[in-house]
Amino acid sequence: MSEAGTVEASMEATMDAPPRLDVDRLLDDPQTRIIVCCGAGGVGKTTTAAALGVRAAERGRKVVVLTIDPARRLAQSMGIDSLDNTPRRVPGIRAADGGDGSGELHAMMLDMKRTFDEIVEGHSDPERAQAILANPFYQSLSAGFAGTQEYMAMEKLGQLRARDDWDLIVVDTPPSRSALDFLDAPGRLGSFLDGKFIRVLMAPAKVGGRAGMKFLNVGMSMMTGTLSKLMGASLLKDVQTFVAAMDTMFGGFRTRADATFQLLQAPGTAFLVVSAPEADALREAAYFVERLAAERMPLAGLVLNRVHGSDAGQLSAERALAAAENLEAENLEDGGIVDQESGKAGLRDSTDTDPDPRTDADVITAGLLRLHAERMQVIAREQRTRDRFTSLHPEVAVAEVAALPGDVHDLAGLRAIGERLAAGVPAGA
To answer: Which of 208, 303, 308, 421 has its CA 20 to 30 A from that of 340?
Structure first.
């Protein structure tokens, strides 16, 4: 391509580039009180949430990071032995340039059952709370009933926000399809509580005493007989006992869940969709962006993780491959033999026992050129994938985070990720 063509292509790329996500502006804004990181599995949500927490704390904010992912990566990267349902202060936070040293970072991991227990203990008298906690159906429900984790995450978020001990809450969610349950939990809970099944089970308790039992035996004998066959008499009794004990609390569940849902829609909340520059992950990201728009949730932008760049981007893959082939051809003419077995540019002489230093240098150079060509092909593929996303959602601000050579396992690594988030573009881009 001519120099004029290169300049024209560069200008066109600049014009088509999506708006840049200003992460520091988001973190520094005192109006930003909640950041929710969501996306497909394996794209770096936990690391992104932790890096945002570290950077915000070192810039002067009091932050708590709540992870719903049961993986232990967050605790390990922050130098904490373990995380549980209680926020724990992270040591080693220091003032960044421009920070006043007043920032703090706490981290915690959602304990679904313990959160449920806390709700029961906090909204009923000790005797009733003990009866509920000992109920076999409650124990099953609180330990792993479908949707309970997402609802309890909403509860915990509401609790943290109500305490007002932190001016920024960063939430790390499960993979995106599960994170959608995070949004759906209040609605599903309302449907459950308003459903015919719950009304049937609550009816005897509402009538009360012997009259209730008579009503149950006469008016719903067929219904309960069917339920007994499906669930077993013992389980049905446990469910009825649970519903009777929880009756006065159901309205509170719905009220708090609806309030938390409204909190997620409020201007002080920002959703960050985290993705990798891969087709499947960006399809999930696009799905989530559309869902957030449908729910009127405030989307801050897209974090595109593990993006590859090159400081020699002016050398295209085609030119690098051509140069490698020329070097290999010259060595063949000089009597070298290309070792095609490994697919690399390894050369060996068919007659000489002593290697020619010049030939060795050419072999290394050709190999490096081929590696560079592979890197440029990866960069081009990632760019095409990103461009497909931005063509569908040109309004979404993007921060591209350069890939690190290794895993993040300490605060220094999280700081490095934070710096890349703030830069918004990969190294060498």
So the answer is: 308
